[in-house]
Amino acid sequence: MGQEATLVIVKPDGLIKSLTGDVLSRLSKTGLKIIGAKVLEVTPELAHEHYRHLKDKPFYGELIKYISGFLHGENRVMAMVYYGKDAISKVREIAGSTNPEEAEPVSIRGAYGRILTTGLYENVIHASSSTQEAEREIKLWFEPREIVIELYPAKDAVNPQTKKVWL
Ligand code: IDP
Ligand code: MG
To answer: With 134 labelled, which of 50, 143, 149, 158 sits at a CA distance of 20 to 30 A?
Structure first.
C-alpha cells in the first residue's frame, strides 16, 4: 500500500488514565505524520454513526456507552489523523489486537486494555481498519479545514464560517 491516512481515537479510558502522552509516543515510532488532532466530546449521534456497522452485535449498547463517555463519566476523546506509508497497518500493530487479552503485552491494548465484567473490551484506542473505513471515519470526525493537507476532495461550503465541506 502507498500513502494513506488512518483515524486514531484515544477513547475515554485513555483520557481518564492519562495515557494520551504514552499513546502519542508509541505512535511516533511509526514515523507517520500527524495531519489533524483535536479533543472533542462524543455525542450519542457521533457514537452511533462511528460504530454503525456493529449495531447488531451483543456488545453494541455497551460500546456506545463506552465511546460516548457514559462508562467513565468522561465524554472527551482525542482524535488524530496519521498519514504515511502503510499508516493503517502500522498503527494497528502498535494498537494491538481488539481483545486486550489476546493483544501483545507490548502493544497499547495489551499494556493498558482490559475486559469489563459486561464483556466489553475496554481497549484504549480506536484505529481504522481499511482505507475505506479510514475515509468514512475521518470525514465523520474531521472537517476539511482541520486537516493540514488536502486529503480528500472538498468544496466551499454555503456557510462561509465552515469554509469547506467534504464532497
Ligand atoms: P477494532 O476497534 O479493533 O477495529 P471492532 O471490531 O471495530 O474492533 O470493534 C470496535 C470496538 O468494539 C472494539 O475496539 C472494542 O472496544 C469493542 N469490541 C469489539 N469486539 C468485541 C467483542 O467481541 N466483545 C466485546 N467488545 C468488543
Ligand atoms: Mg474497527
So the answer is: 158
